[in-house]
Amino acid sequence: MTDSDGHSHHFTLPVGKVQARLWMEQKKYAEKVLAPQFAELVASTKQPFVQAITDVLSPRASFMAGKTLLVGDAVAGFRPHTAASTSQAAYDAILLSEALIGNISWDSMEEEMMDHARHLSHAGIRMGNRSQFSHDVGSKLKCQELAHT
């Protein structure tokens, strides 16, 4: 992403650095495709920024024969629209507590953590695809495909 000063950014275009021409185009596009309330929010934004949305999902939670455990955002970085990072960390903490007091096995804890992380990660992808590309038949098919994975 290239900012208004011509500098390149990989993940975040800082506040106030969106090129004016591109921001005007985005506001016009928002007016065409968004509900009036959301288009108004876009139009009234004075200092926009752009953040790349990435998907991060560890293949497992436990490493080094159980000596290292990933929890929360370290297991999976969810898309912002899922609003699930805090609940994931809390859920992982509960599972860890259950494993430490012996109510569940370490393997069961890790399996539950990973199932939860995979489910929310895929849900975030489906929500994002549906909200951005639902007008596109090809994307609808991709969303349906993801829903069955």
Describe the model:
- 13% of the residues are buried.
- The chain is built from 5 helices and 6 strands; from the N terminus they run E-H-H-E-E-E-E-E-H-H-H.
- It is elongated, with a radius of gyration of 20 Å.
- It is mostly helical.
- Helices cover 52% and strands 8% of the residues.
- It has 2 domains: 12-51, no CATH class; 56-147, no CATH class.
Number of beta-strand segments: 6
Biggest β-sheet description: 2 strands, antiparallel
Number of domains: 2
N-to-C CA distance: 32 Å
Q: What's the arrangement of secondary structure elements?
A:
Blueprint lengths: L11 E2 L6 H14 L2 H9 L5 E2 L4 E2 L4 E2 L4 E2 L6 E2 L7 H16 L5 H28 L3 H11 L2
Antiparallel strand pairs: 1-2, 3-6, 4-5
Short overview:
The chain is mainly α and 149 residues long.
Q: What keywords describe this structure?
A:
149 residues, mainly alpha, two-stranded antiparallel ribbon, elongated, disordered C terminus
